[in-house]
Fold each of these.
Amino acid sequence: MTADNTATPEPSAPDGGTRRDFLYLTAGAVAALGTVSAVWPLIDSMNPAADVTALSSIDVDLEPVAVGQRITLKWRGRPVFIAHRTEAEIARARADDANPGLIDPEPDAARVQRPEWLVIVGVCTHLGCIPLGQRPVDPRSPFGGWFCPCHGSMYDTSGRVRRGPAPRNLEVPRYRFLDGTRIQIG
Ligand code: FES
């Protein structure tokens, strides 16, 4: 657990090269008078930590996350995906706003506070699996977002469900920008 309140994530390497290409960031609990967050690069378990409580919130420094990279952190025992979207990913999401094939219609603008940052809970809305798509080598479905291997649900670059049995888009958690590069989730 870090001494200050801000978690500095290590982003994944977009080319899956020599750097670790997939990091889980785990954040800790809130103290009564403020947020205390903790980050460990690459945690091998997604089980809730004992200090992750229902009241927790986490601060995340997004500055190290390059365009096109995606990071995973843990919040309230659940994975949260943060994608630093490219211009192409943003354009693709917006282009599908009026697509009649959307299972859970929602404009991209309603799902992001800043177009380049998508923050979503990484839990499939079908039966709760964790979709693939965070690692550069993962399948991201034909829609460029995430793919749930459990029963084949597919999500687009806005986290909206596009195929499969999942009934709803990936959840957008409550969060806010604290400044230009830091957000607080929860
Ligand atoms: S849990 Fe994701 S498709 Fe079934």
Amino acid sequence: MALEARGVTIRFGGVVAVNGLDLDVRQGEIVALIGPNGAGKTTFINCVSGAYVPQSGRVTWKGGDILGLTPNALGQRGVSRTFQNVASLHDLTVLDIVRLGRSLGRGRTERRSLGLFTTRDPLAEELTETLLAPLGLADARHRPIQMLSYGHRKAVDLARAIAAEPELLLLDEPVAGLSSREAHELADVIRGVRERHGCTILMVEHKMDVVNRTCDRIVVMAAGSRIFDGSSDEVQVDPEVRRVYLGEP
Ligand SMILES: Nc1ncnc2c1ncn2[C@@H]1O[C@H](COP(=O)(O)OP(=O)(O)O)[C@@H](O)[C@H]1O
Ligand SMILES: [Mg+2]
């Protein structure tokens, strides 16, 4: 198993946000993590990405323990994430941010020439062509991020995470707040990342059309625990899932 979480438990005071969670993602798989608000999805992503250290449990990536690692150490192991709420209070440009993302990764791609003695900037050209253009951000590349719409900032955050050329990509509601056209475009980019890089992806997402378009398997969390693990056909008829979402007895 590429990503393996076992018995992950994290409490905040009296609240058990994640309660003995087991979750597996195979190499190259895209798994959706869904569940009602407050289910513990973001908290779990925060554990895997090193922001929180759970009180108990283990998380391994390709056999190595990753709990509590810094973003840099995770970057070196090929792990990258996006954020549910994107920051906007700085004046870095789109290209600056994507370059930062690239510098945090391991740099698996052969670098092109450094462009000495020319005014060309090969890295900027490569990032624009391979990342910003497919996300509709090529024309915005020199604009400060705080000038962009929410949807474009979400796309920049995704571009930053992908720029690291991760082997494991953790996405927290990547299309929240986007129009359905933008959401479908972003979903296609996410699938494209897996196809190009063979990347493994764990994605928190509410929009079921995006989940169905993007993911191979669905895990449902409720009140900190896993209540379902299976296909999108099965999830719709699962009695426990229907009870949690629809209040069926
Ligand atoms: N830093 C924190 N301090 C206190 N409580 C938190 C913190 N982060 C999350 N929680 C609580 O943990 C539970 C799960 O939250 P969260 O992981 O954000 O859920 P989800 O992402 O599934 O909506 C909620 O009850 C939330 O209030
Ligand atoms: Mg959340």
